[in-house]
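Section 5: illustrative case.
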């Protein structure tokens, strides 16, 4: 669809809304970036808010996990491997990036598989992989765990902070402070888990929800469908408009890989707290590869930086522009909180592209 076509479609939908206040959450950080980058927020009237959610894995990784990762990286004969965004997030004593500058052995990986090579080349060191992500990354990490075990790479451990989407969406929808009228569901997670994974949003909470892709036309179509339903012009329903990639049941091979290696456990979400059954950890068969068994979980402490509103942003209660530190003391170069670190964090996205819409700039 052309840019003009997208604008026309949104204009038609906006006419159905009139003065009604509408709050739509785009759960996933990739959607936040796509929506903002293509300027969709700027097309919407003030009464239609698009709220970011908890779908940026770096943003929701608990501060205490970062502190423990710093401790692990500081241990003798350890190489810590992590994704690039992760090393920039501050714990209470700085970031892995700070430690790397000071000479700590911290290696940025681009794919979970990289840790197999690092461990094979450094048999005299203990390699610990900070394995962070959602259901999208979990199958890849599970496959690497299986390979490490099969290859008897006894110098490779996994320090996991893997999370799952359903419990946190439930948690947000149950929060009485939230007035979310509709959800754009995470397309990448749906590729793995299947569209049906998100049906509960509409079935149990009566909230319209759409699985949609990441092109401007996909997102505009999803927002239109939600607005029309929220305005009462169409019945509330769940829909999958990303059918070119997402089947109802998802990728069953990837799901089997997760089930074979990982168990569900309680998980600590930065700024939100512990949510029951919201994490994935290594199961009994692979627990000898679990770095938490050797170094501890690190989930005892951890605080948010003073003045940082990331927790409210992740819960869909506030916009980045409502944070006094936004663009002043907190920028992508010198971030105070995790939402400014990752390229999919709401604050970093708004800083880079301008948010627009309600409260926008
Ligand atoms: Fe936190 Fe910075 Fe975002 Fe404010 S602008 S909420 S301090 S990450």
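Designed sequence:
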């Amino acid at each position: 669809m052309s840019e003009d076509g997208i604008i026309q479609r949104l204009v038609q939908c906006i006419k159905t809304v009139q003065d009604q206040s509408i709050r739509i959450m785009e759960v996933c950080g990739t959607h936040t970036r796509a929506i903002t980058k293509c300027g969709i927020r700027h097309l919407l009237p003030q009464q239609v808010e698009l709220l970011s959610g908890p779908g940026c894995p770096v943003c929701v990784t608990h501060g205490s996990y970062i502190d423990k990762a710093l401790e692990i990286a500081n241990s003798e004969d350890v190489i810590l491997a992590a994704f690039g965004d992760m090393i920039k997030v501050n714990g209470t004593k700085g970031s892995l990036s700070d430690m790397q500058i000071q000479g700590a052995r911290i290696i940025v990986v681009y794919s979970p598989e990289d840790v197999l090579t690092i461990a094979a080349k450094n048999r005299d060191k203990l390699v610990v992989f900070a394995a962070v992500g959602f259901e999208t990354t979990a199958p890849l990490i599970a496959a690497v765990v299986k390979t490490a075990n099969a290859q008897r790479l006894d110098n490779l451990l996994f320090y996991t902070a893997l999370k799952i989407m359903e419990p946190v969406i439930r948690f947000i929808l149950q929060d009485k402070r939230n007035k979310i009228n509709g959800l754009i569901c995470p397309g990448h997670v749906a590729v793995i888990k299947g569209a049906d994974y998100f049906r509960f949003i509409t079935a149990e909470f009566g909230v319209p929800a759409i699985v949609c892709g990441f092109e401007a036309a996909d997102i505009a179509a999803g927002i239109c469908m939600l607005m029309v339903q929220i305005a009462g012009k169409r019945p509330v329903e769940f829909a999958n408009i990303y059918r070119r990639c997402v089947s109802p049941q998802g990728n069953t091979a990837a799901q089997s890989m997760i089930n074979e290696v990982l168990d569900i456990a309680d998980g600590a979400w930065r700024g939100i707290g512990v949510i029951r059954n919201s994490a994935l950890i290594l199961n009994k068969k692979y627990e000898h590869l679990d770095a938490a068994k050797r170094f501890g979980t690190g989930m005892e402490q951890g605080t948010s930086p003073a003045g940082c509103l990331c927790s409210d942003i992740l819960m869909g209660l506030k916009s980045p522009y409502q944070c006094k530190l936004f663009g002043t003391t907190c920028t992508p170069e010198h971030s105070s909180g995790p939402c400014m670190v990752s390229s999919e964090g709401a604050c970093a996205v708004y800083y880079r592209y301008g948010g627009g819409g309600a409260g926008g700039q």
